[in-house]
Amino acid sequence: MSIQDLYRAGNFSINPSGVGSIGDRPSIGSTKAPTNPDEFQKVLRQEEGKISMSQHAETRIRSREIPWSAAMEKRVMGGIEALEAKGSREALILADDVAFIANIRSKTIVTAMDRTQLKERVFTNIDSAVLV
Description:
Strands 1-4-3-2-5 form a five-stranded mixed beta sheet. It has two domains: 3-47, no CATH class; 51-131, YaeB-like fold (2-Layer Sandwich), CATH 3.30.2310. The longest helix has 16 residues, at 70-85. The two termini are 24 Å apart. It is globular and about 50 Å long. Helices cover 33% and strands 19% of the residues. It is α/β, with parallel strands linked by helices.
C-alpha cells in the first residue's frame, strides 16, 4: 500500500504548501489504523511483502496493455526475493514476453515493457537479471 493509498483510506487531505488550519488536519484517533502495536507490526509485515509500482511503471503497464495478474505478481515477487538474497539492487526481471526493471531493496517495479519495446535489447543501470 502506498502513502497515497493510506491517505485515501483515511480520508486525509494533503495541503502541498504544508499550511492549513487545524480543522484541515486529522485528529488523533480519527484513522482506522490499528491502535495495538502488535496489530501495527502485523500490518507492516504484510505490506513489506508486497510489490509496489512506480507511477511510471503503472502508466507503462496500462498504455502497453501488459498483462498483470496475481500469478504474474507472484512470479515477479519470487524473482525479487531471489535477487534480494544475492544482494542485487537494480535488476531486470524477465517473465514470458515481458521485462520489468525493479528496485530490489524497495521491491518497486520501475518500468515495464513487452516484446515490441525490447527491440534494442540493451538494458542499462542494472546489476543483475532473473528469468521467472
